[in-house]
Amino acid sequence: MQWGDNLVFRVGDKSIGGKMFAVLVLGSPRCVLSFAAGLERFAELVEREGIFPAPYLARAHWVAVERWDTLSAAELKSLLRDARDLVYAKLPARTRALLAQPLSQKKSAKKKSGSKKSSRGR
User: Fold this and answer.
1) Which among 2, 3, 9, 11 is positioned nearest to 100, based on CA atoms?
2) How far apart are alpha carbons 43 and 57 in whole angstroms?
């Protein structure tokens, strides 16, 4: 949960540089979901009824969906998978490498990177 009533979906944990790819808007009467669409898909999707440029994130080619029945379940699943892949592809190589590691290794890598930061300031 972030920004009040929003359920944020991320590629990876925020603490290791993960980025969000979709936001489920629980308290808004205007939209139910926003997600990364990419440049080409953005232009195509905003032409459809019930889909508009996402507030604050349109510059990053995100769209917002007004109602759940705007997209079929299969199309929504595909678009969300594409959103995740799009955001994952833009992550730095180091973050992608961390995400590929088993959970136990991620925790130790996170601790090591935290100790390096503290030693730099000395």
Assistant:
1) 11
2) 14
CATH number at residue 61: 3.90.1150.30
Distance in angstroms (rounded) separating the CA atoms of residues 5 and 21 = 17
| Assigned domain for 80 exists | yes
Residue 48 · residue 34 · CB < 8 Å: no
Please say whether the beta carbons of 10 and 23 come within 8 A: no
Whether 66 maps to a domain, the answer reads yes
Residue 84, phi then psi, degrees to nearest 5: -60, -45
> How would you label 101-116 residue by residue, b for 16+ Cβ within 10 Å and e otherwise?
eeeeebeeeeeeeeee
Res. 17 pLDDT band, cuts 50 70 90: low
Q: Locate tokens 């030693």: which residue?
A: 119
Question: Using 50, 70 and 90 to split pLDDT, how confident is the model at 101?
Answer: confident
